[in-house]
Amino acid sequence: YVTRNNRYFEGKPIPCLPFEPLFGSTRHLLLRKVASHDFMRSIYDRFKEVKVFGMFDLINPVFVVRDPELIKQITVKDFDHFVNHRPIFGSNLDRDSIALFGKTLFALSDQQWRDMRATLSPAFTGSKMRLMFDQIVQCSAGVVEYYREKVNQSDEEHEMKDVFSRYTADVIASCAFGLQVDSYREPTNAFYINGKRMIDFTRIQTLLKAISYRVFPWLMEKLEIDLFDREASLFFAKIVLETEKTRETSGIVRPDMIHLLMQAKKGLLKRQKERDESHVEGFATAQESEVGMSSAQANEPLTQMELVAQCLIFFLAGFDTVANCLTFLAYELTINRDVQDQLYEEICATEDALQGKPISYEALQHMKYMDMVVSESLRKWSPAPSTDRICTRDYVVRLENGVEFTIDKGAIVFLPIAGIHYDPQYFPNPEKFDPERFSERNREKIIPGTYVPFGIGPRNCIGSRFALMEVKAIVYQLLKEFSFEQTSRTEVPIRLQKGFVALNSENGVHVKFTPRN
Ligand code: HEM
């Protein structure tokens, strides 16, 4: 069973990374000798001349696609062959069961995914983000207030992942679950602790479950084993179900995800025509495809557990990703003082133009340099170092040089995001943090398919607008009040956490907040 795929690449006209039984080509990752970001970069650089090469993820054959044209072909044009991610999260065979991971949009497959994407897509448009923006401002203003008090107590150095994880948890509580939580003043509140627990993939049980899903997916499915921690799932399920009940009985309407999902459950959530201003979008924003734009609703209404699972997606896909994006952005702003100063200038100009009014969604969207800085940070420190697809129908690849081969049904495709983002033919001098790559003049030169922090095609990140709004709002508020300064504990260059975990720093990012006046 373990070696049955070993000869898979032998007849194919593409190179293959060395591999060994069970470990495949990922031994160093599995044994925590390398960070996933560095791993993706190193394998991408291994075969500089080819468009595709093979490797093994444990026992499974993987095609790593290096070529942007082929990436677009697979993820957009011939999407019907590659609709799903790898089946490593469980499925939604029993729509009412408490095994929630398999019910999230990320894990759903085929028609269930198409229906859910079309159902959820109207909840993530610019107009819906605008409705949630006040809650984001409230959370980010709360953070600044908290650190202002801390400065008065002469406590000025902070570990940024901790700072931003708490912010992200408070935003999720407010925007997804309709709760007010203060994870700064109550650092051990149950929402924050259970949220952390939910996404802690370094716990040995979770790691073993993740590996077992890669090696014996059929068995894990049969046993209904959920990657989410059961106790934490129940904690959040209870919140969602109780909130839903209270809102139904008291007629409460609040502009948050629970409300939108309750509407979706009744088939009432419709895509609205966007107002003109919303056309100013972050460069990194992932655009919705026809699948998401389709007005077709699912044949069956959402079940209670499916609704709960979509709220949990904020933890699965939008907690660590956003906190890490912010942590690495803060790191770059701290060590690139010129960039920080230029961004601060734009913040002051925006503040002046607002004439005392609080920051608005539109004003934030119009901050060009902010968008350049965030875009560059997502290039250099992509929170998702790679993404994948599984081939659901045999697919013949024909390259211009006459090379031809088949990606067989069941094989995995990797899109090595971190590798592409550091390829000097697309981003010269890739180690340099240079927001100018994304200036209005320069961004036109970026080749489609080479900048994909939120993925690509119909299966791209549904939450990119939410993520960008959340990131920009806190950067605006914090930098307005404090400058970020390096201390003896700021590690330069930053070291990354090793193992299967997504982008994360090994020793934290320590930064001093110095009040501006
Ligand atoms: C900086 C933060 C984030 C980054 C870098 C990021 C990145 C990604 C990437 C690379 C994918 C896979 C796309 C593909 O395979 O083509 C993805 C999928 C997804 N993301 Fe995000 N994400 C972020 C924040 C969020 C947030 C805040 C949410 C909120 C709900 C979210 C929800 C999702 C969902 C639901 C999917 C699966 C979509 C589907 O399968 O249809 N993400 N994200």
Secondary structure: elements and pairs:
Layout: H1 27-30, H2 36-46, E1 52-57, E2 60-65, H3 68-77, H4 110-120, H5 126-152, E3 157-159, H6 160-175, H7 190-198, H8 204-215, H9 217-222, H10 230-250, H11 257-265, H12 290-293, H13 304-318, H14 320-335, H15 337-354, H16 361-365, H17 368-380, E4 387-390, E5 395-398, E6 404-407, E7 412-415, H18 417-421, H19 440-443, H20 464-481, E8 482-486, E9 510-515
Parallel strand pairs: 2-7
Antiparallel strand pairs: 1-2, 3-9, 4-7, 5-6, 8-9
Helix pairs in contact: 5-6, 5-20, 6-14, 7-10, 10-13, 13-14, 14-17, 14-20, 15-17
Defining traits:
517 residues, alpha+beta, three-stranded antiparallel β-sheet, 20 helices, 9 strands, binds protoporphyrin IX containing FE
Question: What does it look like?
Answer:
The chain is α+β, with helices and mostly antiparallel strands and 517 residues long. The protein has helices at residues 27-30, 36-46, 68-77, 110-120, 126-152, 160-175, 190-198, 204-215, 217-222, 230-250, 257-265, 290-293, 304-318, 320-335, 337-354, 361-365, 368-380, 417-421, 440-443, 464-481, and strands spanning 52-57, 60-65, 157-159, 387-390, 395-398, 404-407, 412-415, 482-486, 510-515. The strands form three sheets. It has a four-stranded mixed beta sheet. Strands 3-9-8 form a three-stranded antiparallel beta sheet. A two-stranded antiparallel ribbon has the order 5-6. Helix 5 (126-152) runs parallel beside helix 20 (464-481). The mean pLDDT is 91. Bound molecules: protoporphyrin IX containing FE (HEM). Protoporphyrin IX containing FE is lined by residues 105-106, 117, 313-314, 317-318, 321-322, 325, 383-384, 387, 453-457, 459-463, 466-467.
